[in-house]
Amino acid sequence: MPAPAEPARLSVNPDLQLSQFDYELPPELIAQAPAAQRGGSRLLHLDRDGGLHDRLFTDLPALLRAGDLLVFNDTRVIKARLLGHKESGGRVEVLVERIVAPRTALAHIKASKSPRRGTRLHLAGDAFQATVTGREDELFVVEFPDDALALLDAHGSTPLPPYIAHAAGPEDDARYQTVYAREPGAVAAPTAGLHFDDGMFAALAAQGVESAFVTLHVGAGTFQPVRVEQLSEHVMHAERFQVAPETLDRIRQTRERGGRVIAVGTTSVRALESAAARPASAGASAQGDTRLFITPGYRFALVDALITNFHLPQSTLLMLVSALAGMDPIRRAYAHAVQSRYRFFSYGDAMFIESPNHP
After folding, report:
1. Beta-strand pair 183-186/261-264
2. Is-above-0.85 flag for pTM?
């Protein structure tokens, strides 16, 4: 059985305030569509000394060394959004957060009135009906008439982030998914991985850069705003993760030979650092629900560098990258990115962040 989640509130510096992680972003810099090619984005390199370098994502191999290990999150985005109506005729929007059994899911439901237990939902143009059977905190328990994942795949739509204005189309179905996506369960993409294509993987392998995988199913909570000014009072959302023993072995071997462990995306960071916080028995996966909240002052156990996109103001992800690089270097990097017209958020450009604590 998966281990229980960590306590909802972890040790956070009581002096940290939400307002310390704000910045001004012109709306036109929020990318509404991906680059024409996966590797066609820009890359802002923040080196271990705090220097900033404007590059292209195709320059990434030149920044890596033989013996480095890239760790990717192989979660697969499911078509988690369904539209429909209640028997009364009122419109509903269902966003599945997590499938907990073959026919059962936890979901966010938008409706004019909160649905009660027993409410029947007519979904996807009346293609099928589902029933609300209960509630767990802010999520509703929804019972599907057949395999939930299959019904979502047939009738759902890709759940694009709230800051992307258009409805998901066929291009989004392909491009809001990494080329290595394998384990279905996420409702948001691990967006740093969207830049990688087969050509990049071949170039990295030829250079002696190795790859490993973790799984963390990204939840809709990743887009929820922090609603308290004092960060020590924030309750982090839970997400499922799994780090296989072979990945843990690869990390150990990388460390022994002096290579760097480079997380591809903040979700890979959360999976790796959660695994470090609850070591598995020999030959077993580290897995469970994680509420790990990484803020400045956190001491990283496994991650030496990070490839990531640009994150929302006042978000927990901006706090995470500030923990790795330092608050002042991240402030300077984001100010430079705005001034230099980088593209922000899920479909935007990337950063390569080297920790000042690793040679």
Report:
1. unpaired
2. yes
For residue 239 the two structure tokens come to 């997400």
Calpha distance 327→310 (Å, rounded): 14
Integer angstrom CA distances of residue 24 from 104, 114, 208: 41, 35, 40
> Residue by residue, what is the 3-state secondary structure of 46-104?
ECCCCCEEEEEHHHHHHHCCCCCEEEEECEEECCCEEEEEECCCCEEEEEEEEEEECCE
Strand partners for 131: 120, 143
Mean of the per-residue pLDDT values of the chain: 94
In a domain, 321, yes or no: yes
pLDDT digit string, tens, across residues 271-291: 999 999 987 788 899 999 999
* Domains: count for the chain: 2
Q: Which of 168, 160, 164 is nearest to 189 (CA)?
A: 160
Given a contact cutoff of 8 angstroms between Cβ atoms, the answer to whether 17 and 230 are in contact is: yes
* Domain encompassing residue 96: 81-156
Q: Given this model, what pLDDT does residue 7 score?
A: 40
The answer to whether residue 8 scores a pLDDT higher than 80 is no
For residues 222 and 334, state if they share a domain.
yes
- Residues 292, 270 contacting (CB under 8 angstroms): yes
